[in-house]
TrEMBL record:
Entry EC number(s): 2.1.1.166
Catalysed reactions, semicolon-separated: uridine(2552) in 23S rRNA + S-adenosyl-L-methionine = 2'-O-methyluridine(2552) in 23S rRNA + S-adenosyl-L-homocysteine + H(+)
Biased composition (Low complexity): 16-27
An example Gene Ontology CC term for this record: cytoplasm
Similarity section: Belongs to the class I-like SAM-binding methyltransferase superfamily. RNA methyltransferase RlmE family.
Residues that bind S-adenosyl-L-methionine: G100, W102, D128, D144, D168
Catalytic residues, chain numbering: K208
Protein name, entry field: Ribosomal RNA large subunit methyltransferase E
Amino acid sequence: MAKTPSGKSGGGQPTGGKTPTGKNTSGRGQRDLKVKVKTARGRTLSSTRWLQRQLNDPYVKRAQAEGYRGRAAYKIMELDDKYRFLVPGARVVDLGAAPGGWCQVAVKRCNVLGEKPGKAQGTILGIDLQEMEPIAGCELHQLDFMEDDADLKVKSWLGGAADVVMSDMAASSSGHKQTDHLRIIALCEAAAYFAFDVLDDGGTFVAKVLAGGAEGELQKLLKQRFTKVANIKPPASRSDSSEKFVVATGFRATGDSTANR
């Protein structure tokens, strides 16, 4: 369930105020120097454009400077800044965790390494089909979360239930927009059912979806099991992508379907 390259951008470099790196700039006496990439033999025009966008993306540069494994780290930061689910002591499962940016953020915010004295220390599990490079404070497992006993394994590793299940997974692209939309919705629904099996009461489910018209059943499913379901496009998501995130809070283990109607 490895993540594909993120489909969104944080937009252009601001001319004033704070940049994504947190530095104040007036824009005076400065030039917005953009890297231009020439089309090379064997590289398609679309891949050249993607590479040029990556090289000029302020979130990519910020991730490199701050030691995160990808720009997606800032998406989960922005979601958590709004909904506050990565709290000290939280037990978190990251599905499709590779390359590990979301896990890195969760380790810090859930105080796994005890860097916040007096606060509870959380537990972070990263689950992916592929092997991942180690992350300090994070327990990584090579596992297909859709296996029959995957939920039992995860609960045993956690020593109980989870407080958060999050997923930045995306199905492999087919090049057909509607097909890709249906695939990622199906993947998100599978992640939701997994969350139903491992979440504790009051837990949170966060997952990436693609806007495209087939989200209705997923929304209905989540509203049956959570007290609140929100859809949000964080600033770190590229504006030219249909990517958005669903944040479902207040899990009801009893499955009461009368709420949120």
